[in-house]
Amino acid sequence: MIIKTADYLQSEADWRKCPSPNLPEYAFIGRSNVGKSSLINMLTNRNSLAKTSSKPGKTQTINHFIINKNWYLVDLPGYGFAKTSKTNREKWQKMISDYLLFRENLQLVFVLVDSRIEPQQIDINFINNLGEKGIPFAIIYTKTDKTSSAKTMSTMQKMKNLLSETWEELPLMMQSSAISGFGKEDILNFIEEINEQYYSSKDLL
Question: What CATH class does 6-204 carry?
Fold first, then answer.
């Protein structure tokens, strides 16, 4: 897939106010400071489409972008550490949970995981929660340029081992680097495959 246009649409704190669910939609989420905004900018060929920050908790709303006029990319708030009140964290958690459960055109959630560190319980809990609720997802390992290939593979294998304890079939896992662009083609081609299935099913109706 080639990204020709990528435009910001709107930001909402309520999933019911999001854009009309008439296009396939892909959400990106991960622990705060996992490199989500940088990855989105790399995928869309835009330096500042998604706002990057060294401070966790920068994204606080459901942010919609329209890509190539035919699918939505959604930047969700990070989960985990953020310098904010317990009330705000609970509000963000409910906002994300409601969006993931009720957004009817959501095709897939990309869960971003830092390739440099051991599997974190908060990531495992989030992944298991998606599985329990039947929400389709894939895992993207970020920042692979900041560690060795062997370290990334080791981190991925440890995650597979942990998930294998409760999962019959493991989710798709991909690698990426916002710096080098590594993984971009795989991620966009995967989205394109799902889009083709989505529009094909619409044509049959």
Answer: alpha beta
Q: How far is CA 112 from CA 14, 48, 59, 200, 205, in A?
A: 23, 19, 15, 28, 34
Count the neighbouring beta carbons within 10 Å of the beta carbon of residue 91. 15
Inform me whether the pLDDT recorded for 57 exceeds 50. Answer: no
Q: Are 130 and 173 in contact (CB under 8 A)?
A: no
- Please state at what angle helix 184-204 crosses helix 36-44, rounded to 10 degrees: 70
- Rounded Cα–Cα distance for residues 40 and 84 (Å): 24
Residue 122 CA to residue 125 CA, distance in Å, equals 5
Residue 33: which pLDDT band, with cuts at 50, 70 and 90? Answer: confident
Segment holding 94, helix H or strand E: helix 86-102
Would you say residue 186 has pLDDT above 70? yes
Q: In the structure encoding, which two tokens stand for residue 37, read together?
A: 């905004």
**Average pLDDT, integer, range 16-44:** 94
Domain boundaries, the chain: 6-204
